[in-house]
Amino acid sequence: MTMMTKCVTTAFALLLTAVSASAQVSIEVSPLRVELKAQPGGTTTQAVTIANTGAEAVRVRAELSDWFLSRDGSPQFVDASDRTYSATAWTRLAPPEQTIEPGREAIVRFSVTIPASAGPAGYRTGILFEFGPATADAATHRREVQVRSRIATLIYANVGDPPPGVELVDLRSRHPPNQPTQIIAILKNSGRRTVRTRGTVTLTDASGTAVAKIPVPDVPVLPESEREVAITLNEADKPAVPAGDYRVEVRIDAGMPAVLVGETTVKIP
Question: Do 12 and 63 belong together in one domain?
Fold first, then answer.
């Protein structure tokens, strides 16, 4: 049986804390993203660590969920009506519910088995974690979970090596109220694999001098989907770009032989 390999990007292996409305529940989950490189018929088992950093015992419930990314990149957890890219039915996890004492850690393991008939594509599933006081009864627990944020580990199962097919279909500037100006690149992925972005945005003034070079964020673009990639200008931890009119050149590497290039203009107030 062919085994899958796992890649966990460092930035997503960081811990995420969720605090309940009563400020008594504090949970950390790691990793938040798991990428599996797989072949049809492959299987693997991995683990997610849950740490109770609060002062009280908590009950943690884990469940599998389909998900997709909205146009702005926000994960949306839904039951997929179209399971073309769903790996949820191929995944098992245990235990589904457990209690973690203060200062202790627990493990949730998941196993993914790729059917031999699966075609090359970027499949996905996710694990949703919900928390509640260990002393609450089941009905109270369900009510409390409804008002709390959930933490999710997103699982990408990349089967085979289908060719990428990404277009830069639009490029514009956006000026959110009381926030830095953004350059918005609209990417359309017509391929069957998830791609991740990297690249640069160069601002050039009227004299032709490049005054700033800003990295394109590393974000996923799911198969057969379209999404916005927001590149923020004048971030708080970066040198400020002076007010004025600029020519903008965006260069995005989406894993294809050619880099995607687009140009627009922006006025920074």
Answer: yes
